[in-house]
Amino acid sequence: MFTRFRLLTVAFATVLVAACGTGATTAPTAAPASAAPAASAAPASVAPSAAASQAPAASQAASASPVAIAASCMNGQVQTLTSGKLTIGTDNPAYPPYFEPDATTAPKPWKLGDPTNGQGFESAVAYAVAGKLGFPASDVTWTYVPFDNSYAPGAKPFDFYLAQVSYTPQRAQAVDMSDGYYYVAQSIVALKSNPITSAKTISDLKQYKLGAMQGTTAYSAIKDVIAPTAPVSVYSSNDDAIAAVKAKQIDGIVTDLPTAFYITAAQLDNSVIVGQLPVTPGPNAEHFSLVLAKGSSLTSCVNQAIASLKADGTLAQITKEWLSDKASAPVLQP
User: Which of 158, 201, 210, 308 has its CA 20 to 30 A from that of 68?
Assistant: First the structure.
């Protein structure tokens, strides 16, 4: 489902770029970090974990035990493209809520959002991972790499890359893909005028007529998690489901949260995200991974950093701040 969303975001980004009056995309260029948050201190060492190129089953919930980072993973010890520096890649335009605009014009080559300012979900995650590995913001640089190039075979101009790249076994054959840093939630999109927008819990949704694209996890979420009293409406595409919302044939569409951001921003006028369903991480759950070169010595270090961010609650806090609170997409409880 998410692979299709990434294709849609090309059109979304094009619309936003045109609105901002920006020009054509420039060639890959490194941009220095400017106002990113200070890096966190790194824990003491522990043996590195195996590099992950298979779907992990890690939870985003904080654990009772801290996770240490191997001394060999720290700045000055770990091998990176540039000694003592960490180069992070992402797509361009870099758009909210993953990357937020700077207070002034974003530095070239960035459009719409500024990865270097530490604002937005993925910018915050990137600097948090860097901090765990002992790289302060001043030692982090960013470079533009088109989405599809990030997981293509071959050498990489980055140490790691993030741009909502969903793990797939096919991608993991050509690159290393880290443990998940975000597990994709299902969400409900509706017109602002529809009474469903007053729903505060999953139980509140049961009385409304909902629809989803056939064969998706969204359809399963309606049946198994929401369990509405009315029959579920099934559509061959999200476009058909959007048309049904416009015609008031259904009260809301259930779709993954990244697609919901796109629908409310570019496809369905006067619409909102009513809320998102709680995520259940697992080996088969769709998740975003950091991308690294195949066989990178940094992969196990990145996995340790992600595990530490999960264990101390930092990753959960970042997710809540940028993909729930500031994105106006509250997590609906039973």
Answer: 158
